[in-house]
Amino acid sequence: MFLTKINNQSKYVLYSPCNSKLNSMSETLDNVNTQPGTRPVFLTVICILSFVGIGLAIIGYVGAFALLGVAEVATSGTTAVTTTAGATVTTVSTGIIWAYIIGGFITVILQLVGVLQMWKLRKSGFYLYTVATVIALVLGFLYGASVFSLILPIAFIIMYGVNLKAMR
């Protein structure tokens, strides 16, 4: 590997026997743009991944709305307490389930709005996305999510945070 100066300018390029040209690590991580107002490639990639994940979540919540509605209609004549072999078993209130589904759906919509704003290079989208994600995590823990469910949302918040300097 060796450095070479390009056209007597102060810009150096790293050459390697394996690769004809390697970018410096800072240039890769900083997503250097030659034109102001252009979206960095890394931001584009994580926005697209977020669009896919949010789209799947919306489909899941719409399905949950439909299934819970059908289940309520089907069980409207039954009671919430069942006696089995002398033991009393209570079922989970559908009100709690509805609260979780509606809360989750609202946070997903807020995340979508935040990602759309970040797609347009607006910092306010990062803050909206972060608040909605934190609310979704709190709701998840209230309803029994594991600590493992923190990894992906926090990773996306960090990845979006790295791209804040490209936003206005």
SSE layout and pairing:
Layout: E1 2-5, E2 12-15, H1 25-30, H2 41-74, E3 81-84, E4 87-90, H3 94-119, H4 123-142, H5 151-162
Antiparallel strand pairs: 1-2, 3-4
Describe this structure in words.
The protein is mainly alpha-helical and 168 residues long. The chain folds into 2 domains: 1-30, no CATH class; 39-166. The protein is built from 5 helices and 4 strands. It has a two-stranded antiparallel sheet with strand order 1-2. Helix 2 (41-74) packs antiparallel against helix 3 (94-119). The two termini are 38 Å apart. The model is unreliable at 20-34 (pLDDT under 50).
Number of strands: 4
Strand count, sense and barrel status of the largest sheet are: 2 strands, antiparallel
Helix content: 55-70%
Shape: elongated
Mean pLDDT: 79
| Rg (C-alpha, Å) | 24 Å
Task: Please indicate the percent range of residues in DSSP E strands (runs of 2 or more).
Answer: 5-15%
* Structural domain count: 2
Question: Stretches where pLDDT falls below 50 for ≥5 residues?
Answer: 20-34
Helix and strand element order: EEHHEEHHH
Largest beta sheet: strand ordering:
1-2
Q: How far do the termini sit from each other?
A: 38 Å
Q: What's the helix count?
A: 5
Overall SS class? mainly alpha
